[in-house]
Amino acid sequence: MSSTYSPGLEGITAGISAISEVDAERNTLAYRGYDIHDLVCGCSFDEVAYLLLYGSLPNPQQYADFDSEVRANRAVPETIYDLYATFPRDAQPMDTLKAAVAVLALSEPDGDDSSRATNLRRATRLYAKVPALVVNGYRIMQGQQPIAPDPDLDHTANFFHMLTGSAPTDLRAKAFNVIQILYAEHGFNASTFAARVTVSTLSDMYSGVVSAIGTLKGPLHGGANEAAMQMLLEIDDPEKAEAWVIEALALKKKIMGFGHREYKKGDERARIAKQFMIELSKAKAGNAEAGAGQDPSRWQTISQTVEETMLAKKGLFPNLDFPVAAAYYLMDIPVPLYTPIFVMSRITGWCAHIIEQLENNRIIRPSSEYNGLRGLQFVPLAERK
Q1: What local confidence, expressed as pLDDT, does residue 287 receive?
Q2: 3-state class of 87 per DSSP?
């Protein structure tokens, strides 16, 4: 076995990037040099999207121009909505979204131009349109009519407008904004690396994004938040949570939403998201509309028990997906949308990496180590038994 081989490329440096820095030793994350805590406390998601794409936080005029461009590009071609109507009703949202982005490439106004300026415009259009693809695609698959994006609303309010037809509470808007920022970028993760591999062949941005969506679909990556919520729903009762986890571990089941290759001392993003999950739980528990016999605080209680049990039994901390699962549920977001919403957040991170890859490109083509048979004697077809 070669000394340079590492399963899953763990510990292998596959490129150089100025977009984000994951410091596993200090358990910190920075986007373009800005600590994630400062960004979630002081920025809208639009500001972070601009930061990732353009390399610096926008000044007021740059922000106004970017915001206007995003609002003006939210509409999706009706042909894509017509396409959604042809899909099987049980199709997975990540599969339909992947198809929609691929078809969106056919209406690309800038053709094959792959200059930096053009790719920045493309990335902005994708950032603007993906929420409509996510929400209205889901609505159509549920037999509902799509709701047109509202250019008078900001990015988060527009998402909830399309999803529910009404504005979010201040807490939901804040929590959703923060979670979008936390998911926006994370180095050479699997989906980002897939996007870079694709465009390293000099393929286009849409192809890179489609590759990334296909990679993100997996439960070991983007799909972990959905799997984590399904686990919480299966547990359902706080009194059963500890025993459920212990039994699952005994059966060698993977508990989704725990552990991270980069963060061995705990995912700081998860700690931030957990605080908002707790606030959402308290707010929902205090809402009389919660319904008799349906205590929303149980999701926080179950989550806390699962977290404590996993730390005690396996020494594993939750990653971002775990608290976000309950947070989205407390926002009344349908579980099948959790991973597509990840696409909404990560789209500018992917596009930033695509642009960076193309600016100093070399095709990504790692070596492999052969471990098959050698020296076999060839036998013509007629003589084989």
Answers
A1: 73
A2: coil
Cα separation, 385 vs 382, whole angstroms? 8
Q: Is the pTM of this model over 0.90?
A: yes
**Mean pLDDT across the chain:** 92
Q: Please identify which of the residues 155, 260, 267, 353 carries the catalytic annotation.
A: 260
**Six token digits for residue 266:** 């705990």
Asked, for residue 379, whether it belongs to a domain, the answer is: no
pLDDT at 5: 79
Sheet holding 34-35, edge to edge: 20-23, 28-31, 34-35
Q: Beta-carbon neighbour count of residue 48 at 10 Å?
A: 26
Residues 83, 106: Cα–Cα separation, whole Å: 13
Q: Is residue 1 scored above 60 in pLDDT?
A: no
The string of pLDDT tens digits covering residues 3-37 is 677 877 777 777 899 999 988 778 789 999 999 99
Range of the domain at 187: 17-217+342-359
Q: Would residue 373 count as lying in a domain?
A: no
Q: What residues contact 48, with CB distance under 8 A and at least 6 apart?
A: 31, 39, 180, 181, 184, 348
Q: Is the pLDDT of residue 292 over 50?
A: no
Active-site residue (options: 46, 204, 267, 321): 321
Residue 43 falls inside a structural domain = yes
Q: Is 321 a catalytic residue?
A: yes
Task: Strands of the chain (E only): list them.
Answer: 20-23, 28-31, 34-35
What's the whole-number mean pLDDT along residues 247-274? 88
Length of the chain as a residue count = 385
Is 155 considered catalytic here? no
